[in-house]
Design brief:
6-stranded parallel β-sheet
């Protein structure tokens, strides 16, 4: 019985030998040397050889040469663990015999291959992934557990009459805490364009996602795209004194070593990286594509009743340089930070906020202290309303609570727009004023 639990392909002859209950009873009865000698066999090899000759000869007389293993198993009354059998008459390939005597199979779609012997959670997939031509531009999208909601939104986006197809990964852990990962239907992604939606919101999850990211391109996929909406170490992009570590460079080097797929280097999609010069931290083995969430904000502002009275504000000169090109033709206000003894104060550098709906724009927010100081300054200078937009709402320690009606200091905001690039924040602030989520699902679907 132990030989059937080993993970190896099951041949047609082996399936015939052990596919019946009678064969199992015979094996138990023949367990002792006395029983084997009584049956006329000197050793196990003779017994197996005789059984093979008898069963294979009978089988050959009853059916054509290439009867699928799945058909043999069903005829023998074994339980076939598969959601469907190929329309071509079954699937040839691997299976496994469980300790209870049930054989499990994993079935690919028509034209596909039977995959590895580990069970696939078929209920997680609408069916086996179909192997399509490499010219198909719409990929299979795998995703980190935290990105499940965004991934499903992307799959619902209809782009030119087509949409991405969601893949499935088992995210498990061994008893020692290290990841136990498995990509379902690995054979089904061959010759498909494949993408992975990542979330590096915490250092603890980076290793397991990097393990998946490094493995997918090696599965004979047509191309591989990494979608990393938030590049988390982007604010650590420079060194001001000896001994400091620019971790933005470290993460860029890790991503630069993603193996190439059959189609070439990995493409990487990042939204509003903190500093555009960080593109030069990536090596030649990766193709970084930098997008922005600002078009989502522009679309949303156009729907405001006071759209004609909106002015864009920047909390510092760096934000102005980063986003000024998106707001051509719109009036702008620029704030700046100055030191007053041991304090850092926010002052108005240029622009006129009086009587206007001012929207402060930045790439990300951490504690939110600078935004709160800007709001207080603009309100003091006569702004009718003050709103804010950031692409990445990091908010460590639930600092977003400062901006709610019961928070300390951030209650003066009319609206606080942010994207779902940081899934833990998007989930936490959903339905809470003044926050409003602008989903990245459409721009990601269009980019894919």
């Amino acid at each position: 019985a132990a030989r059937w639990t080993s993970r190896r392909p099951v041949s047609r002859a082996e399936a015939i030998v052990d596919r019946s209950a009678a064969a199992a009873e015979e094996a138990a009865a023949a367990a002792s040397p006395t029983s084997r000698r009584a049956l006329g066999f000197e050793n196990d090899d003779d017994r197996v050889k005789s059984a093979l000759e008898t069963n294979v000869a009978g089988a050959d007389a009853e059916r054509p040469e290439k009867t699928p293993v799945s058909v043999l198993a069903q005829e023998a009354g074994l339980v076939v663990d598969a959601s469907a059998v190929s329309a071509a008459g079954g699937v040839y390939g691997s299976g496994k015999m469980s300790k209870k005597g049930k054989m499990s199979f994993r079935v690919a779609g028509a034209g596909g291959l039977l995959g590895c012997d580990r069970d696939v959670r078929s209920s997680a997939l609408p069916g086996a992934l179909q192997r399509l031509d490499k010219s198909n531009k719409y990929p299979v999208l795998f995703f980190a557990p935290e990105m499940k909601e965004l991934a499903h939104k992307i799959a619902k986006e209809d782009v030119a009459g087509s949409a991405v197809e969601l893949g499935d990964i088992d995210w498990r852990k061994f008893p020692d805490g290290f990841p136990d990962l498995f990509v379902n239907d690995a054979y089904g992604v061959r010759d498909r364009h494949v993408a992975f939606l990542a979330s590096f919101h915490s250092p603890e999850v980076i290793f397991e996602q990097i393990s998946i990211i490094y493995s997918l391109p090696k599965m004979f996929v047509a191309s591989f795209t990494l979608i990393l909406p938030f590049f988390p170490t982007g604010t650590s992009e420079r060194v001001e004194r000896e001994g400091e570590i620019a971790t933005a460079v470290t993460l860029a080097r890790i991503l630069s070593n993603i193996p190439p797929s059959r189609g070439g280097p990995c493409s990487t999609l990042i939204f509003d990286i903190h500093a555009l010069q960080e593109r030069f931290y990536f090596g030649d083995n990766i193709l970084p594509c930098f997008e922005s969430g600002i078009p989502l904000l522009l679309n949303r502002l156009s729907l405001c009743p006071d759209a004609d009275n909106i002015v864009i504000a920047y909390p510092d000169e760096g934000a102005r340089k980063r986003f000024h090109g998106f707001f051509k033709g719109m009036e702008e206000v620029v704030c700046t930070k100055v030191r007053d003894g041991g304090k850092r104060l926010v002052k108005l550098k240029e622009g006129e906020p009086a009587g206007r709906h001012v929207v402060i724009v930045d790439d990300l927010v951490q504690s939110g202290g600078t935004l709160i100081e800007c709001q207080k300054l603009l309100a003091k200078l006569g702004a009718l309303k003050v709103s804010a937009y950031v692409t990445h709402g990091v908010f460590p320690g639930n600092s977003w609570e400062r901006f709610t009606s019961s928070g300390a200091g951030g209650q003066g905001f009319s609206k606080f727009f942010l994207t779902d690039s940081c899934p833990q924040t998007a989930k936490a602030v959903e339905g809470i004023e003044p926050f409003e989520i602008l989903s990245l699902s459409r721009p990601i679907a269009e980019a894919l």
